[in-house]
Amino acid sequence: MSILSEFKAFAVKGNVVDMAVGIIIGAAFGKIVSSFVGDVVMPPLGVLIGGVDFSDLAIVLKAAEGDVAAVTLSYGKFIQSVIDFLIVAFAIFMGVKVINRLKREEEAAPAAPPAPTKEQELLSEIRDLLKNQQTPS
C-alpha cells in the first residue's frame, strides 16, 4: 500500500472528517464569542468600572537603549486575558444552563401512552364480549 493511498484512507475516515468539521465550527464559534465579549459585554462593563483597561499595566525590567526595545513584564495583558476568560466562561455557562433547562422541560413533558397493540385490542374485545354474555339481560 503506497503512502498516498494510506493517507487517503486516513483522511477520509469518519472521525477525521468529523473532527475537521468540529474544528471549523469551533473557530467560527470562537469568533462569535470574541465579538460578544468585545462588542457587547465589555463596553457596558467598561462604563460600569470607569473605563479601566488593565492591558496597559506593565513593569519595565530594562529600559530601552538605542535600537533595543524595552523589556517589560506586561502583567496587565494577563489580567485582561483572565477577565476576558471569566466573562466568556460565564457566558458559555449561562448558555449551557439555558440549553439544559430546555432539555429538562422537553424530557419532563409526558409522552403520550403507546397505542394498544392489535393483540391488546383483540383481547379487550374478547373480554367485553365475555362480560356481556355473563350479565343477564
TrEMBL record:
<dbReference type="InterPro" id="IPR036019">
    <property type="entry name" value="MscL_channel"/>
</dbReference>
<keyword id="KW-0813">Transport</keyword>
<comment type="function">
    <text>Channel that opens in response to stretch forces in the membrane lipid bilayer. May participate in the regulation of osmotic pressure changes within the cell.</text>
</comment>
<dbReference type="GO" id="GO:0005886">
    <property type="term" value="C:plasma membrane"/>
</dbReference>
<feature type="transmembrane region" description="Helical">
    <location>
        <begin position="78"/>
        <end position="96"/>
    </location>
</feature>
<dbReference type="Pfam" id="PF01741">
    <property type="entry name" value="MscL"/>
</dbReference>
<comment type="similarity">
    <text>Belongs to the MscL family.</text>
</comment>
<dbReference type="GO" id="GO:0008381">
    <property type="term" value="F:mechanosensitive monoatomic ion channel activity"/>
</dbReference>
<keyword id="KW-0812">Transmembrane</keyword>
<protein>
    <recommendedName>
        <fullName>Large-conductance mechanosensitive channel</fullName>
    </recommendedName>
</protein>
<dbReference type="InterPro" id="IPR037673">
    <property type="entry name" value="MSC/AndL"/>
</dbReference>
<keyword id="KW-0472">Membrane</keyword>
<keyword id="KW-1133">Transmembrane helix</keyword>
<keyword id="KW-0997">Cell inner membrane</keyword>
<keyword id="KW-0406">Ion transport</keyword>
<dbReference type="InterPro" id="IPR001185">
    <property type="entry name" value="MS_channel"/>
</dbReference>
<keyword id="KW-1003">Cell membrane</keyword>
<keyword id="KW-0407">Ion channel</keyword>
<dbReference type="InterPro" id="IPR019823">
    <property type="entry name" value="Mechanosensitive_channel_CS"/>
</dbReference>
<comment type="subunit">
    <text>Homopentamer.</text>
</comment>
<feature type="transmembrane region" description="Helical">
    <location>
        <begin position="16"/>
        <end position="37"/>
    </location>
</feature>
